[in-house]
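Backbone shape codes:
===
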Amino acid sequence: MIRRMSIGEFLGCLIDHITEHTGITCYDFPEDKPSPLFSAEIETTEDARTKTMCLDVFNVLIHCISEPVEPFSTAPVYRLVQQVEEAMESELELPKPFLLNTQDFMGLRAVTRDQSGEGHAILSYRIEVCYGLLCK
């Protein structure tokens, strides 16, 4: 059987990619961490196998948490959104033998103000990972 990329391995690659390309630390669970920061989570995974490729789809959410400002403004959180968008313009690097098939921006889910006064935006991405080729 062909080995799939583990969810943890994929999440680690995504977190490293965001941290390296933005200069701001990305976490998988940022409890009690100072803002600004990013947080990546896997919303769902699915098998997207075709006739010729073994594919897994990772639907991910990237949370952008800006520092609190008074009076509240969405400008700091939108700056973080822009940084993630720019970081995700470059291809996610995956370890061999895995190949990135597609990396698509699926939209901005929400922009809110947390109880702490921090701005919070959620971006959605759909990333397809090829883990093998099929032949007859």
User: Anything to note?
Assistant: The radius of gyration is 16 Å. The chain is about 20% helix and 40% strand.
